[in-house]
Protein 1
Amino acid sequence: RKCLSRIRETRFLNAYITVSEDKALKQAEESEKRYEKGRALGILDGIPIAIKDNFSTAGIETTCASHMLKGYIPPYNATVVQKLLDQGAVLLGKTNLDEFAMGSGSTDGIFGPVRNPWSYSRQYREKRKPNHHRVDEDSNWLITGGSSGGSAAAVSAFTCFAALGSDTGGSTRNPAALCGLVGLKPTYGLVSRYGLIPLVNSMDVPGILTRCVDDAAIVLGILAGHDVKDSTTTQDPVGPFILPILRDVSKLCIGIPKEYHTPGLSSETQALWSKAADLFESKGAKVVEVSLPHTSYSIVCYHVLCTAEVASNMARFDGLEYGHRCNVNVSTEAMYAATRREGFNDVVRGRILSGNFFLLKENYDDYFVKAQKVRRLIANDFVKVFNSGVDILLTPTTLSDAVPYVEFIKEDNRTRSAQGDIFTQSVNMAGLPAINVPMALSSQGLPVGLQLIGRAFSDQQLLTVARWFE
Ligand code: GLN
């Protein structure tokens, strides 16, 4: 009940699209009964959580923040949602995002942008200079980052204890960094995507947003493992994700990718990154500079592969099976076209168009096939670094701390979700686990996070080091 009233108090953040209050109260009551009767409890029994609105939830509207799916009520739960419910978690509602998770601001969904709770924090307000924009002026609130900004705001504003996001190119780690949270992107194939409405099937992973590393490990322990409904999930035993206390980091080798010193990186984030490397070194870890030579191609490579997969994924939204259908009925084709024009925003339509362009017969080899080759080179860069003895890579997560909404939307909405993903996207192309760990507050009083990246299926080690580091 406290969480539900907190949701009401913080409604202005626009973190939730749907609050499933009645269902949540019923789940909480059942949990209480189990407790009173001394029955076996699940790992998350009675713990309120939130789910990004691109995961299917049985009986609860699932919109992807798009007109296309408004009113769509899935008949089944995503595997990850079912696993959380099976452990007694109380599902409070569905959180806001960029339409179909395309973006990195949580500003482009049909329900409007999500506000970063830190816009209203004492730390931020006190640090702002007099006469500078005042945060209580409506126009000066900050973005959460995205696209899982609703989930990040929900956890950061204390409306729930954990939330699911999705991470295709950084969408869990990016808002975690800007909202001061732990944001975990597990290894591709460790967690089932069944019921996660796809953006880029070959890169999508359910992500976990929590306030500390231990909580993320608990949730990962519940979610991880083979799912017969997702053939890309590993059949190997996973877990247990019970983190040993790491006292000695002297056997660790930490890599600092030199290509990540990009021009757009803020001097404060840069300074914090160096400080963190020094910390590892002062505690005995070996810190080495490494090279990921294909980094500069990652944004364009991601763009070609992402939009190509988007073009084929979005073909299912034709006005027949799901959600929206327009009133045009002169022909089937006219109905498809009008439905899709009405249903998708310009970001989604733009990606469908560019994806179809890359997939045209005459372009296929020059764009799609070439991008797949570049993706392999990007993935191999990481493999080489890890094979050279590096255990973990330490990098920034975002270029800077959160920016005001009015600044963010000045850029064209197709470019604004690109450059800022420089530290996160190649990780998805390589399928590796990575985590944002909140590190410090900037001079503006806003959270800054750093990213740790591990080798494939080293999620346990990654979390262990992240906990030492947090
Ligand atoms: N910002 C990236 C994009 O727009 C990543 C999104 C995501 O991870 N869902 O595609």
Protein 2
Amino acid sequence: MVRIQEPNRFPKGHKAIKKPRFKNQMRRTGQYLKTISVLLCIVAASLSLPCDIFCESPDPHAGVRQQMVERQLKVRDISDPKVLEVMGTVKRHLFVSSKYASQAYADHPLPIGEGQTISQPYIVALMTQILDVQPGEKVLEIGTGSGYQAAVLSYFTDQVCSIEIRKGLAEQATERLKALGYKSVRVKHGDGYFGWPEYAPYDAIIVTAAANHVAPPLLDQLKMGGRLLIPLGSTTYYQTLTKITKTPKGNEVDHLLGVVFVPMVGEILGQ
Ligand code: SAH
């Protein structure tokens, strides 16, 4: 019987590259890295850190979110780098129902259930820029809705309180914020007209529903030097985004721009 031998492709004394072993080593290294990343993920979750730092989580909306920052915010008057960064970070599509996810970064408000809406990205960015929250400051939001504005604010300070009058929305937002890792945001179901005295006074108060007057308890719960931002005017038509700064000489009032918000309800309407 004749045995056909494999021709020796290397001259004598030459060390052949052992490809299969190299491949196996690479595969094993890949497996180690994956295991390490899963472990880091578990550690991140238990420490309440955003898991994205370690996990491979391709975000199909990342491109369109950055486009929103470029085409809707930068070209208008959003110039605060931190606001631009945060707007490019928060996954807005996770704050609307999946049927609206593809429109989440479009230049308009979207329904969030119970006849309410999440404001267009530009308005969220603008209100955040005007509010100019500094680390450690205490912020109160009236009108949690989806929780998106509260999530955005939580990148500026770890002291964000938010009140929502509709129980279903309050519960949903609480769950959502928790699931997405925004554990520092406190949400309460109640009428924001009365503020949240437990954590007062606040450095900043943001009202994200249209009001025909400023609820006196909100002004009472504002720190001296604090600012309150509110869409003020008709609750059924247009409002003027108004900034009120509490000073020892009284309240300074700045009328900023025309806006349209869903109405603030409850005590403010005598309901
Ligand atoms: N900021 C929200 C959108 C706000 S829409 C977001 O980022 O998604 C306005 C919200 O204000 C609605 O959810 C509405 O239910 C709520 N609201 C209306 N009147 C309120 C009141 N008196 N107190 C608290 N929330 C109120």
